[in-house]
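Q: How do we represent a protein-ligand complex in a form that can be generated token by token?
A: Start from the inputs.
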Amino acid sequence: MSEIASSQEWKALEESAAELEGVSVRSLFDEDPARFGRYSIEAAGLFLDFSKNKITDDVLARLLALSKKADVEGARKRMFAGEPVNVTEARAVLHPALRDFAARTYHVGGEDVSRLVRAERDALAAFCASVHSGECRGYSGKPLDTIVNIGIGGSDLGPQMVVEALRPYWIDGRHAYFVSNIDGQHLADTLEKLDPERTLFIIASKTFTTDETLTNAMSAKSWFLANGGSEAAIAKHFVALSTNERAVTAFGIDPRNMFRFWDWVGGRYSLWSSIGLSIALQTGFDHFERLLRGAHAMDEHFRAAPLRENMPVMLALTGVWNRNFLGAAAHAILPYDQHLHRLPAYLQQADMESNGKRTGVDGAPVGAATGPVIFGEPGTNGQHAFYQLLHQGTDLISADFIAPAVSQSEMAPHHEKLLANFLAQTEALMRGRTEKEASDELAREGRPEAEISRLAPHKVFPGDRPSNSILMEKLTPETLGALIALYEHKIFCQGVIWGINSFDQWGVELGKALAKSILPELASLGEEKPPATAHDASTNGLINRINAARSGAAGKHSAGRK
Ligand code: F6P
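Then emit the structure tokens for the protein with 6-O-phosphono-beta-D-fructofuranose bound:
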């Protein structure tokens, strides 16, 4: 077991959880309405209310002691100093350097990387300006008004989420598409909508070795060549975002059409780098810069604020409390803003790929629960889907509610109704409803006694379902940047407390390797394959069934789309 899970600080929190059994958050509010003021923090345009968690001053003091024990402050310092905190890959973790507009310099292995960051940002800005002004055009002279970002994971989820979130900031007449899945239908459905003469393909891959991205990029190139483009025109229609110049060149993209970033930018922390090109092209470089500035404001807060007043730290600590001491197995991300509809998917990667780990940095088992399952949907859609389980299910699920006070596109009475729902849900999750309240309500409705006793148990809500509320005045590039940075730092702090490396992702390797070995065993349409025997009975059986369907399918299904 890791040191932290056997520490005195950990044990003290276990005792707190036991002491609070039977104490409801509703009673904590009744006793102390001032807890809202005490358990909320404002920073970088965001307001965090964490008072609806089952916490007390004593619990917070013990959580802070735990963070001291784990040396969150030291780890924070080491990260910003460019030390190789990604220990298994021996890399620095310096995505904050990408959004630092202060005069500060950042060093990695003695090299000043701030200069590189500025130069690449300038190159990105110049490219955006030339596309927007029409100086940079397609091969036939038409403007490049459509972009297709081909990438996956961090090279897709971040930029796509931001582009969606900043929809009101889109430049008129511009179109943006994102293709990630190796399922050819994703690309085919997108290509159908494109005019090759107006399309810029952005091949986004940190490593430039990711099979999904390279396969999609290859097929996009073939489509371009088959639809009027020429080899000579590729330079005008394909750019690469990567750290791997050699692989970009081998793929056939001129390094002059490449925007770089560095191995100290993790894939899921890369939207601030040249990976953000789709954001800058779709919304304008000025808005991209505002996004970076918003994130920088959160970085400044995270660097300087004492732990108790530090928004990412307190979000992390309440998360650890719910996960490790109250037993929450999953955490819901619930944005009450339709434009944030990709935020849960984005945070799924950010959190689960970072903290879904069982081995500590020391190589020993962590011995405690680490990252929870992250899921979510925008409100109010989620309310009509999975909130039933949040309110009355047998598992404790914690949740973050995220809402702007003013909508990007106010349309009375929609936003007031949306906000009323957000507030009501957090209140209902916290307060719950006792059996007596349920019976009284049924009695007020004039229901007969027998029906009251039959229905009342079903109408009981246990309450004490923890939630945070994150408010902003409006969803802008700045508040969005701050929100993303808030989660990045929260995830970092939790990883430090659990003693894991939040910046590697060994868990994605095994499946990738097995897929490579299975690929040659799968039949092309119409092809006969010998029975698979190299795997377990289930995998062999599935391969054989698939091959039987594919070998007999040649006549029935063409390789085309119908
Ligand atoms: O899923 C594994 C992963 O390495 C992610 O961490 C990363 O965001 C994604 O693949 C894409 O990687 P790349 O940008 O190198 O293509």
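The mean pLDDT is 96. The pocket of 6-O-phosphono-beta-D-fructofuranose is lined by residues 152-155, 205-207, 210, 213, 267-268, 353, 505, 508 (CB under 6 Å).
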